[in-house]
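ok, trying the design again with the full structure, not the truncated one.
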């Protein structure tokens, strides 16, 4: 190999290395930008979901309340999360804020009809059975929202209340409004647990999906 060839080889090597360094630097910048954007989105999403869910209207008076279902234990008793939702419903009813209740849930893997368990819990605590409607087809939040139309005519309802965990309420409210109901209010269950961190992160994905991707009517 001549000196000229050797010099050319060395220059080509350094040029290649320089290009690789530039590519790696550019890739690192892209990764950093994506990370920062994701962090900012996550931060503001979490803050928005939590603050919105924990915010209640000054006047919680409503024609009817939708209580969203949750796990029933193998004993047939409501889980602590579900019990907290029902207890908040009792607070609203006993304070004269609500007139009727719709309990909505599906058949859980434990084999219990959530809506029946929810209704029985409320009846046992002095809400008349004739004021409680059961929706046992509310397998998820969207179905619970849409199933309201099986019981109610949106135009005949002045206001409707949703009771659930605080992080769940922003998405639930969007779905109930999309089902045709106006003046939707929310009240959160007074129960907090470590699992909330996971649930909040899940809502940072689920909420924008609901907001940005409208349900396609078949």
């Amino acid at each position: 190999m001549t000196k000229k060839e050797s010099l050319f080889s060395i220059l080509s090597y350094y040029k290649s290395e320089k290009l690789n360094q530039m590519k790696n630097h550019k890739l690192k910048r892209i990764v950093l930008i994506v990370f920062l954007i994701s962090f900012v989105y996550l931060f503001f999403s979490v803050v928005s979901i939590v603050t919105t869910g924990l915010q209640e209207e000054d006047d919680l008076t409503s024609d009817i309340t939708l209580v969203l279902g949750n796990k029933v234990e193998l004993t047939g008793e409501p889980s602590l999360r579900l019990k907290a939702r029902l207890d908040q419903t009792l607070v609203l009813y006993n304070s004269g804020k609500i007139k009727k209740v719709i309990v909505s849930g599906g058949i859980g893997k434990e084999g219990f009809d959530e809506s029946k368990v929810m209704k029985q819990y409320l009846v046992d605590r002095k809400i008349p059975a004739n004021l409680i409607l059961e929706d046992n087809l509310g397998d998820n939040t969207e179905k619970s929202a849409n199933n309201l139309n099986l019981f109610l005519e949106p135009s005949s309802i002045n206001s409707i209340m949703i009771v659930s965990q605080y992080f769940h309420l922003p998405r639930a409210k969007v779905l109930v409004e999309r089902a045709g109901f106006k003046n939707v209010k929310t009240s959160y269950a007074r129960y907090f647990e470590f699992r909330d961190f996971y649930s909040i992160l899940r809502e940072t994905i689920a909420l924008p999906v609901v907001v940005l991707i409208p349900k396609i009517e078949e």
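Keeping the full-length input from now on. The CA atoms of residues 10 and 79 lie 71 Å apart.
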